[in-house]
Amino acid sequence: MGQDTLVKRQFGHRVRLALSPAEVLKADRQAHAARTMWNLLHAWWRMMSKEKRTLGNADAAIRKAREDIDFLAALPAQAAQAVLKTYFQAWKNCWDGRADAPNFKGRIRTVMSVDIPQGRDLNIVRVHRRWGLVNIPKVGRVRFRWTKDLPVGKHANAENRITGARLVKDALGWHIAFRVQALDVLPAPHQGPEVGIDVGVTVPIALSDGDTYEHDEWLTDREKAKLLRLEQSAARRKAHRKPGERTSRRLHHTYDQIVGLRAKAKRRAVDWQHQTTTAIARRYGTVVVEALAITNMVKSARGTIEVPGKNVAQKSGLNRSISGEAWGRTAAMLAYKTARHGGTLHKVPAPGTSQRCSACGHTTPGSRESQAVFVCKNPDCGWSGNADHNAARNVLHLYRMGLALVPAAGRAVVRRAKRVKPATAR
Question: pTM of the predicted model, to two decimals?
């Protein structure tokens, strides 16, 4: 037998922290200091001339700011350096056309986060089966939920180790995302069958072999009623608030409850997607999906004053349903999970897959009689069946015909931000 091929893989593992109220306050202060540091860097960048926008000058500026502004001292020095590195990388991504230009970070809409760039500072220890301990700079020794074996202690070496972490706050509180570097065996090519996938709202995932993956509502009836009651209460309190008046603690508490329920729905959706995509990646060697332009699909139908839109409320409800299914996240999960199991993921053009008959290949008007029923109107065919399975079979047919989307000249096509000159023209 030949020697197994080893490949280096990097991934993140996010777990929940068990912080005391005092530790939460310290973490919050660090996150606010990191956001302020970013905004100060952006203001410095806009003020300086091009020849002075160097890494050394920026480093000197943040060191001076940490001496002059007291609350910036809450941020560890290495975390401040990580903010500087991330800011310069954001400009490089902009110049290469991979992202828009960086901007100021607002207090409300910005995700609170703090980077811990050095893995050796974490000093991770497993206490018992469910809990571990991690050292967070300027916060202390903190417990976290042990949900996956990590390369720590005698299990860590130069190839398998934790290279750093990042603190992130969401509706459930503070989490820590470990950056893990591991050496894995390259999987053998998957010998499973090919399958086409059609995604939808009524039937979330339909396969070309006739199987379907469905789910219930993300929130129970009781939870949905509570969410509606909270949203109505927040709207009433917001309507009685005078312009410029500070938001009351009661309204803030209502907002927190709304965010918590929506976060619960998202966690359940992501969990279902993980279980479903893992089952598909294990079973099939080649997975084919549609290349959907989801951003265009969820555009509003409101129109303009001169040309108002039609069925605006219905289109708005459809947009919410499409966004709730998160088809793009499903495709992203399938991409790395099929590769992990030795399979491949391919994308084919989306237009016409739901109108074409998978039996005879003809596209005739009115063949899709309803959401679930497809009856071919071709007099020589007359095939009938489930509309979602028919679309999935068409998706697989496009791949077998060699119509999978291939980037131009074998390279990834990048999007250049508007009004940004190429790097060679600077």
Answer: 0.78
Rounded to whole angstroms, the Cα distance separating 35 from 107 reads 8
CA gap 205, 213 in Å, rounded: 5
Residue 366, amino acid: G
246-249 long-range Cβ contacts below 8 angstroms, 24+ apart? none
Q: What three-state secondary structure class fits 416?
A: coil
Give the model confidence (pLDDT) of 297-325 as tens digits.
Answer: 777 766 666 666 676 777 777 778 878 78
Q: Are 359 and 326 in contact (CB under 8 A)?
A: no
Contacts of 165 (CB under 8 A, 6+ apart): 115, 116, 119, 122, 134, 176, 177, 178, 179
Q: pLDDT digit string (tens) for 20-66? A: 999 999 999 999 999 999 999 999 998 888 888 888 888 888 888 88
**How far does the chain reach from its first CA to its final CA, in angstroms?**
54
- Contact, 333 vs 291, CB < 8 A? no
Positive or negative, the CA dihedral 390, 391, 396, 399 is: positive
Torsion of CA 130, 135, 136, 141, to 10 degrees: 70
